[in-house]
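Lesson 9: reading folded outputs for more than one chain in a single document. The general rule is that every protein is listed as its sequence immediately followed by its structure tokens, and records are never interleaved. Here is the first one.
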Amino acid sequence: MKKNELRALLEARGLRPNSRFGQNFLIDEALLARIPDDAGVSSGDKVLEVGPGAGALTEQLLRVDADVLAVELDHGLAALLRERFLSHIDSQQLTLIEGDALGKNERLNAAVEEWWQNLDTAPYVVANLPYAISGPFLARLPGRNIAGATLLLQKEVAEKVAGPVGNAEWSALSIRLSLCFDCKLGRRLPPEVFWPRPQIDSAFLQLSPKENAISHEQDFQLAEVLRFSFGQRRKQIFGRLRKQFPEWAQALTELDVAADARPGNIAPNVWLNALDKVNC
């Protein structure tokens, strides 16, 4: 959808981009048309789209005959989507949820959780995520049964997740995601392919599930100790762990982690091996 078409579509309904919701609409039609193929989505696949906005990406997903669950927080845009895609909603190819995609305690919206649990095949996640929810949404993916995810994010966030072990931006979330997915940095996008133009560059992050991905229960255990450890990422890890998580300190010691190690220096597989020791 071109900028002029999008602007007219919104103005006809008294709508405009809402900065509070982080609305930056992708307006490069050629790029939009490539996303389903880049994401590996084809006919009959189940897809979760968060923040569909005016439906430019939704339209492309429906074009390849995917079955889409779209979650939109903005009331005006949700009404627009119902109008634009009424026939797809009636045929149940598109299900629209008006509300926040995020639930409490690192869960998704209750209706999304119910949809996910009732699927007989793993869904894809394809979205131009509002920047404000990128981190919280990513934190809800580890341990889930996903066919793949293609997410358009702030470039710095995508680089942090897909970066090598031990780099300056390595985080607790990076470790959790890397234990479930192969994380690949995709195409970088300049501000001019969006309207309104953001002040930052964007990039695609592609997540492909690993055969030996950790379970939801394992991720839940790891998340707590990782958040604590990275809370003061520049400090040596053992001094803090011995007070709060002594069993983890012991496990890492048995795995020959250096006494002066910081959380970002410890490889994901070492954290996983430590979890196995803690659970013995």
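And here is the second record, again sequence then tokens.
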Amino acid sequence: MISDSVPWKQECLKIAAKLAKRYNQKKWSERSLFTLEKEVFLGLFALRKLMESNKVTDAIKNTKVELAIYPANDKPITLLNQHKFPELYDLYAGQKESISYWDICNQFIHSSIFAPFVPAGKSLVGFYIASDRAKKKKLYYIQLKVLVEMLESVGNNYPKHIELTFNEKTKEYKVSSA
């Protein structure tokens, strides 16, 4: 549980700024890809922990963004072939799906497929992801810009009002914040 959200939110803003600079990056080494992956995962872990700890408003927790999704084709998707994801999904049959910040965090944190999209080796524009659960059905694509906006919105979000309601059935408090 996070007690002081300020350093976590500052970290979200720092990571958002670092990721935004990736738009202009032209050279991609193994080291820079490692650093990118570390930034993304740390940022989304922080985002999820802040939501879990009720350190952001309900509006942020309930925010949904539209992502592209691609259906899995008939080929089995396994540990040994998931790195060949372009052959395993119909990348010409993309559709849109609204997905919550929480679910996006989970897709990354539990990802079996994580692939930065750098067309023609130029600038990073987004990520293909699929969690261990989702990979059998669909592949998500999230634009870098959306990820940066998520981190910025959480990093700048400070609830002004918190309400606790005790649930007799679960013997736990429900926290609402605005």
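What the second record shows: The CA atoms of residues 119 and 125 lie 8 Å apart.
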